[in-house]
């Protein structure tokens, strides 16, 4: 337990749930982290990603290569950013203070919270529609349930209440329950997907028709569309590259977090993608048309046992990605914004309620608007990712003074709690990568090329500008003289300027 009498610790910046986690409480192994990622990677969005790629004209083999490249890129960024969480036991909302300052950190923390709550809202509503369709297939009278005096579906509202309640049940009682849930959910989804793939191979007497379709994208068009496809898949998880310390702070060693993420990200994704293509091939043979929506497949099979197993798996997959990928980071973000009013459980419930207030049923009928907004938010988070990496590895040299991350004065305070170098690097990078995203296609030459590599460009530019702004002949690199003091791991701070 931290010594709350320390004069450096400001109550506006400290809360027991965002305090450095003692090493004896960091008990996640690589199996735990791999299971968490399995539960997140196996979701409807990732399942349907291959559909979008093949619709563009890529072959099945090219789809696998694109997915592998995207997830390997994500793994590299997340592995590097996760190291600080594992080393120091702090979440993203605290780590970001080193680069942006205690007041400046509010900006990236608030952006990340908005992204997480919005993703939670949209994916929960998708899960609600899935549950509604499944219940209707099991009980035909379900579709006839309507609210009095209107045409609104009572069945859908009841499904939403069940889904939101399940999220609250899993998220209650902190990370211990979440960890236990993910240990079951991740492998379970993979097992069911594997069984469905075996069914598909039997139906198709092989890999199926989709694997025989040749690519229609060639030459320069292949490079441009391939880059855009890689960036699009990265966009699904770009926000998590920022806040991966929220999970890695619970992992017992750097080896565990590296192996866990390697198995959970690129390895699992490259296994899961051909499964989705195989299952869709089977729908062509069985129903005469490709079905990329797993809910649609269940409703067409007309088998109660399969509908129950498949439906429960879809719901578990949605819960798994939402709890670990959205509720946890958003809860930590809200904790850092309101440390004196919230604990982790209350923050989790707040995320769930805010997700409902986001009225996802109004957005869900306009998916292009949803993904355009999320694409913009992911582009905004790219320079933040680059700045975090540059700050920790190039400016701080992997050395932090944790006590000063919880105060408005000292090493990380900058100017009145704001560090201009991070703010300037973010603003300049956004001036480069946001206009191509916001302006209509074809507005200026090279626009498509910038959009295709916007995430990579944002990380490299943001990190490079931040490093350049923090170069100082007086800067020194301290030795890693860490010691445990009242739960805080303290080191001699780097004497870099508070730019």
From TrEMBL:
GO terms for cellular component: plasma membrane. Residues 474-499 are annotated as: Disordered. Its main location: membrane. It comes from the Bacteria. InterPro entries: Pur-cyt_permease (IPR001248), Uracil/uridine/allantoin_perm (IPR045225). It is a multi-pass membrane protein. Keywords: Membrane, Transmembrane, Transmembrane helix. It is found in: Membrane. The chain crosses the membrane at residues 28-47, 53-80, 105-127, 147-171, 183-202, 222-242, 263-288, 308-335, 347-364, 370-395, 416-437, 449-469. The keyword DNA-binding does not apply. One of its GO terms (molecular function) is nucleobase transmembrane transporter activity. Belongs to the purine-cytosine permease (2.A.39) family. This is NCS1 family nucleobase:cation symporter-1.
């Amino acid at each position: 337990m931290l010594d709350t009498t320390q004069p450096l610790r400001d109550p506006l910046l400290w809360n027991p749930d965002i305090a450095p986690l003692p090493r004896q409480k960091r008990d996640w192994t690589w199996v735990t982290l791999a299971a968490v990622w399995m539960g997140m990677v196996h979701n409807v969005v990732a399942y349907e990603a291959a559909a979008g790629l093949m619709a563009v004209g890529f072959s099945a083999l090219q789809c696998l290569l694109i997915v592998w490249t995207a997830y390997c890129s994500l793994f590299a960024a997340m592995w590097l950013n996760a190291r600080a969480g594992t080393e120091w036991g702090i979440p993203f909302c605290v780590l970001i203070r080193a680069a942006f300052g205690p007041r400046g950190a509010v900006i990236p923390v608030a952006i990340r919270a908005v992204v997480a709550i919005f993703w939670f809202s949209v994916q929960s509503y998708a899960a609600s529609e899935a549950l509604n369709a499944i219940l209707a297939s099991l009980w035909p009278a379900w579709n006839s349930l309507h609210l009095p005096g209107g045409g609104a579906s009572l069945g859908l509202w009841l499904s939403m209440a069940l889904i939101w309640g399940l999220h609250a049940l899993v998220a209650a009682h902190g990370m211990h329950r979440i960890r236990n849930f993910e240990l079951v959910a991740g492998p379970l989804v993979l097992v069911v997907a594997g069984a469905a793939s075996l069914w598909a191979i039997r139906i198709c007497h092989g890999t199926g028709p989709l694997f025989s379709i040749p690519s229609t994208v060639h030459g320069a068009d292949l490079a441009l569309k391939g880059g855009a496809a890689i960036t699009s898949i990265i966009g699904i998880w770009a926000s998590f590259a920022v806040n991966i310390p929220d999970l890695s702070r619970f992992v017992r060693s750097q080896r565990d977090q590296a192996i866990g993420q390697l198995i959970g990200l690129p390895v699992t994704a490259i296994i899961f993608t051909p499964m989705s293509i195989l299952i869709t091939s089977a729908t062509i043979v069985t129903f005469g048309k490709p079905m990329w929506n797993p809910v649609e497949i269940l409703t067409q099979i007309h088998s109660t046992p399969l509908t129950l197993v498949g439906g429960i798996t879809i719901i578990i997959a949605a819960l798994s990605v939402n709890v670990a990928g959205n509720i946890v980071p958003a809860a930590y973000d809200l904790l850092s914004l309101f440390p004196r009013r919230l604990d982790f459980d209350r923050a989790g419930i707040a995320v769930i309620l805010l997700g409902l207030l986001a009225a996802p049923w109004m957005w869900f009928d306009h998916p292009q608007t949803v993904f355009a907004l999320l694409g913009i938010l992911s582009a905004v988070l790219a320079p933040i990712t680059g700045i975090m990496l540059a700050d920790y590895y190039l400016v701080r040299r992997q050395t932090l003074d944790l006590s000063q991350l919880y105060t408005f004065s000292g090493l990380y305070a900058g100017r009145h709690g704001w560090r201009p170098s991070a703010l300037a690097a973010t603003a300049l990078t956004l001036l480069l990568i946001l206009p191509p995203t916001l302006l209509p296609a074809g507005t200026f030459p090279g626009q498509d090329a910038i959009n295709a590599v916007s995430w990579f460009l944002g990380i490299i530019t943001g990190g490079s500008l931040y490093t350049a702004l923090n170069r100082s002949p007086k800067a020194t690199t301290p030795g890693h003289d860490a010691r445990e003091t009242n739960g805080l791991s303290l080191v001699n701070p780097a004497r870099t300027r508070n730019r």
